[in-house]
């Protein structure tokens, strides 16, 4: 079974790869000049768009890795995450937060595994 790939504008990588029911996606902010809250909102919106593009949704997330350039923002991220993911425990993915060096100005990046 071949994988469907949707390339990133950056080249050399895909923003979403789907193979059968498996979905792998990455998302980050489009405005690296924005503050953390705005970047995280943009990143979550991009993840929603990527999942919808392949016939999936946040309710189908299995695992999400959140890479943060500055863990000082973790409490803000946790609050925004809880609002975005919702109250249905049956739809909560496994989640990990990792401190990471990201591209200049980028404060957060998500790597997600879902099903469709």
Question: What do these coordinates show?
Answer:
The chain has two helices and six strands, in the order βββαβαββ. The protein is an alpha+beta fold and about 120 residues long. The protein has a six-stranded mixed sheet with strand order 1-2-3-6-4-5. Strand 4 (about 60-70), helix 2 (about 75-85) and strand 5 (about 95-100) form a beta-alpha-beta unit.
Q: Fill in the CATH topology.
A: 60s Ribosomal Protein L30, Chain: A
For the secondary structure, the number of strands is 6
Indicate the proportion of strand residues: 25-35%
How many domain units? Answer: 1
Q: How far apart are the first and last residues' alpha carbons, in Å?
A: 15 Å
Give structural attributes:
60s Ribosomal Protein L30, Chain: A, 26% helix, single chain, 116 residues
What's the SSE blueprint?
Blueprint lengths: L3 E4 L6 E6 L2 E7 L7 H18 L7 E8 L5 H12 L8 E6 L8 E8 L1
Parallel strand pairs: 4-5
Antiparallel strand pairs: 1-2, 2-3, 3-6, 4-6
TL;DR?
With 116 residues, the chain is α+β, with helices and mostly antiparallel strands. It is 26% helix and 34% strand. α1 runs parallel beside α2.
């Amino acid at each position: 079974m071949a994988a469907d790939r949707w390339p990133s504008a950056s080249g050399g990588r895909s923003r979403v790869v789907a193979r059968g029911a498996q979905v792998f996606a990455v998302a980050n902010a489009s405005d690296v000049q924005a503050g953390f809250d705005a970047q995280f909102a943009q990143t979550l919106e991009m993840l929603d768009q990527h999942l919808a593009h392949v016939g999936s949704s946040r309710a189908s997330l299995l695992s999400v890795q959140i890479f943060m350039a500055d863990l000082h923002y973790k409490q803000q991220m946790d609050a925004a995450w809880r609002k975005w993911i919702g109250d249905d425990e049956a739809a909560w993915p496994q989640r990990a937060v990792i401190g990471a060096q990201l591209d200049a100005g980028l404060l957060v990046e998500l790597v997600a595994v879902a099903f469709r």
